[in-house]
Write a structure and sequence with these properties.
The complex is a heterodimer of chains A (159) and B (406). With 159 residues, chain A is mainly α. Helices cover 58% and strands 4% of the residues of chain A. Chain A has six helices and three strands, in the order H-H-E-E-H-H-H-H-E. Chain A is extended, with a radius of gyration of 24 Å. Helix content of chain B is 13%, strand content 31%. The chains are: A mainly alpha (159), B alpha+beta (406). Strand 3 of chain A pairs parallel with strand 17 of chain B.
């Protein structure tokens, strides 16, 4: 397929660009660190500063919380959230979790099903933490046999 | 260790930057195969979907339409729902694609290239209504596990391909054949290559129908990757999970196909009706075949406000699985009285049918327009939820839109 050659070329180009960007990144970070440290008298603390600075930046990005919501997954920030992030968002999106409002029994059954058919590992003591988080923060709401129409976006119909 | 971690993270963020740059400058990318493997975070651009589509899940991708986006008689790609069970295959090379017919009940196991399929067998084009078995799941109470589909997991596109029947006959069908099962190139969410995300099928009677095709074109063009390029089984009127994407093997079985999502409670409903929330044993669950009668009002969009005295022209589509829609009605008084809509004959068997009506409202105020289709066996859509089932399938309750007359 013609597109396939393009894809390969594209990947090659991207790998080359990537290498360039990584090198540039190191040059920039390196000169920044040199600049910062050249103003400091303590040159022996250089490596420690590099590591701690990157750790803060990256961890901050991955697990940033805004308005009580875990930005990366959309999960509500509450007790047990990171246990859910670490065990339940590797294979599927958190959207699959938050769409569903289930009882503890249903969640436990779902976990069993995932262990039997989807290669989910044994959750051990984390299972209780996960199920408690889900039933507390995403509780089951009664809908009845037919809910009223909600979230209507009213507009003038021009015809 | 930490340094390596840093390099990895830096590399990942740079990669995103590089891809961003390439998309801006790379007209080349648009001509070629979209690199699905890169999992672009903007599904609307990646899959060329209308911005009004609803993303239910991004891993795996599950995206549905809203009723008003389905107004076209033949659904364009931009409004077609996406339902995936696994990861989209990374390598979809049409020139290297093959389809194998095997199984206990095949006379001679045969492998065809895509070119063979296209040159040796007659092409057929059909408009086929394909609806997810779980369309409408979000209304079930007690809730059912899975993607919480609203009304938009239905489409009726035009599919071109070869009849599955012609292929099965070419390979030879033994007299003990009862079912076919498809196998495809998608990848299990866990990454385990011994598992298939989904491998479903249908009885021989459905497999041998004129309209059951192996399609290589959708709406006159190559099938978009996300909808099954380069080869998709299309079985209109049945749960969309029978219409396997990225199909590379079809097994003729001497028993009901036992692939993934054929078993347990998947795409099955209780053989006998049960009370909401009742526990049902796996052996008491029966495989869904034809989908029930259903309809959608696609114009106007819910929320329309119109001035008093004005006539409202509504329109939409209705479908009935293996059957035809015989009657179409609407109500503006919560089902107290029903009025007839005009309904067209289907373009071909298993295509959805188009309805229309003109409505005059007696006074100002809030209204709901309800639509109700009746199939050729006299079965109509219920106004409230139909029979509860553990997985939340087959909700064909009538569609409702809200209106105000000022």
């Amino acid at each position: 397929m013609e597109g396939d050659t393009h894809k390969k070329k594209l990947v090659n180009r991207m790998v080359r660009l990537l290498q360039l960007v990584v090198v540039l990144l190191f040059v920039v970070i390196g000169s920044l660190i040199f600049f910062v440290n050249s103003n400091s008298m303590n040159s022996s603390s250089k490596p420690a500063e590099i590591i701690s600075a990157t750790e803060v930046v990256n961890d901050g990005d991955l697990d940033k919380i805004e308005n009580g919501v875990h930005v990366r997954t959309g999960l509500l920030d509450a007790e047990g959230m990171m246990t859910v992030v670490n065990n339940c968002t590797n294979c599927h999106s958190a959207k699959l979790i938050t769409q569903n409002r289930m009882s503890a029994e249903q969640w436990n059954e779902t976990i069993k099903w995932m262990q039997e058919t989807q290669n989910l590992w044994d959750l051990g003591a984390n299972q209780e933490i996960i199920v408690k988080y889900l039933t507390t923060n995403y509780p089951y709401k009664k809908k009845g046999r037919r809910p009223i129409l909600t979230d209507i976006d009213w507009y003038d119909l021009e015809d | 260790m930490k340094r390596r971690e840093f390099i990895k993270k830096a590399a990942l963020s740079s990669f995103a930057t590089v891809i961003g740059t390439e998309i801006v400058f790379g007209s080349r990318l648009m001509k070629g195969v979209i690199p699905l493997a890169m999992q672009d975070p903007d599904p609307f651009a990646l899959f060329k979907k209308d911005k009004g589509m609803i993303v239910l899940n991004d891993k795996p991708w599950n995206i549905e339409a809203r009723a008003h986006l389905l107004d076209d008689k033949v659904t364009p790609n931009s409004s077609m729902f996406i339902r995936n069970n696994g990861k989209v295959p990374e390598e979809l090379v049409a020139s290297e694609w093959t389809l194998t017919i095997d199984g206990e009940s095949v006379k001679t196991k045969k492998t065809y290239t895509l070119a063979d399929l296209k040159s040796k067998f007659q092409h057929h084009t059909y408009q086929l209504a394909v609806e997810c078995g779980g369309n409408g799941r979000k209304e079930f109470d007690p809730p059912a596990k899975g993607n919480q589909w609203g009304v938009g997991a239905i489409h009726c596109a035009s599919w071109t391909g070869v009849r599955l029947r012609d292929l099965l006959k070419d390979a030879g069908i033994k007299s003990d054949a009862v079912y076919i099962g498809f196998h495809a190139a998608d990848v299990h969410l866990s990454g385990d290559n011994k598992k298939e995300p989904i491998s479903r099928g249908c009885p021989m009677s459905k497999a041998l129908q004129d309209e059951t095709i192996l399609a290589f074109k959708m709406n006159g063009e190559n099938i978009p990757e996300i909808h099954g390029h380069p080869l998709r089984l299309v079985a209109g009127g049945w749960p969309a999970s029978v219409s396997g994407k990225w199909v590379n093997r079809i097994s003729i079985r001497n028993k009901v196909h036992d692939g993934n999502k054929m078993d347990g409670k998947s795409y099955r409903v209780p053989c006998k009706p049960v009370a909401p929330g009742e526990k049902v044993k796996d052996e008491d669950m029966c495989i869904i075949e034809s989908m029930p009668v259903k309809s959608l009002i696609t114009y106007p969009r819910s929320g329309a406000m119109l001035s008093k005295g004005k006539t409202l022209r509504i329109r939409g589509h209705a479908w009935a699985g293996e059957l035809e829609v015989a009657k179409m009605e609407y109500s503006i008084d919560f089902g107290s009285t029903w009025n007839t809509c005009s309904i067209e004959k289907p373009v071909n068997r298993l295509a959805w049918q188009h309805f229309a009506a003109e409505i005059k409202f007696p006074k100002i105020g809030y209204y709901e327009v309800w639509a109700r289709a009746t199939d050729s066996n006299g079965e109509a859509q219920p106004m409230i939820l139909p029979g509860w089932n553990p997985k939340g399938y087959l909700n064909n309750s009538c569609h409702r839109i809200a209106l105000k007359v000022k």
